[in-house]
Amino acid sequence: MATTRLALAPLLLIAAVLLSTNATAQPAAPAPGPAGPINLTAILEKGGQFSTFIHLLNITQIGSQVNIQINSSSEGMTVFAPTDNAFQNLKPGTLNKLSSDEQVKLILYHVSPKFYSMDDLLSVSNPVRTQASGRDNGVYGLNITGQTNQINVSTGYVETRISNALRQQRPLAVYVVDMVLLPGEMFGEHKLSPIAPAPKKSTSSEVSDDTTTKKAAASPSEKSGSGEKKVGLGFGLGLVVLCLKFLF
Known about the structure:
- Belongs to the fasciclin-like AGP family.
- This protein has about 250 residues and is an alpha+beta fold.
- The protein is about 50% helix and about 15% strand.
- It has 9 helices and 6 strands.
- It has helices at about 1-25, 40-45, 50-60, 60-70, 85-90, 100-110, 120-125, 185, 205-245, and strands spanning about 75-80, 110, 145, 150-155, 160-165, 170-175.
- β5 (about 160-165) and β6 form a beta hairpin.
- Residues about 200-205, about 215-230 and about 240-245 have low confidence and may be disordered.
């Protein structure tokens, strides 16, 4: 019995070595590769309702600039993305009336050169800088206010709310807004107006003043006509008196 065990010992040792070798030879699972570069246009396309904004990002080349800066900056970025409905609610022809430089400023105004989470937006100091800030010596800032369940974004000319978030992970946050953010520096008083002015209604005082003016304008001719009648009557009476003198 002891002899049998001694004979099996080398075999057991060889089997253990072979099992160990097989376990070691199995390839380890590959480590996950680095994430691909972040692409703003791809994020918006996935959202499905940003065709106009994507078009403007492309023709102004701001989309490419944002992608480069996102993937190379430690500050990150925040984008406020207007929906197609937001652009459709503008006065017809508003975008077509903008020059190339004005289109660039409008789109840059929707991009902040810093990453802001929802919590950050609730405590941020206003005005929030945008990529348009400093152009033409303008502020081009955004005022952000609100509570946990609603965050409002104001330009000083229009105000809307953040309705959704397409992305909130650093280094890029993309928030959906229901209106185009129109900067007061471009669309404020005596500047471009994307809103049709309401027709002016005449007030009772204006009607009264207009009636008075018409009467005043008519009165000189009326007085003149009255004077002519008096002169004509006096001349006729004079002729009658003169004729009577000759007869008598």
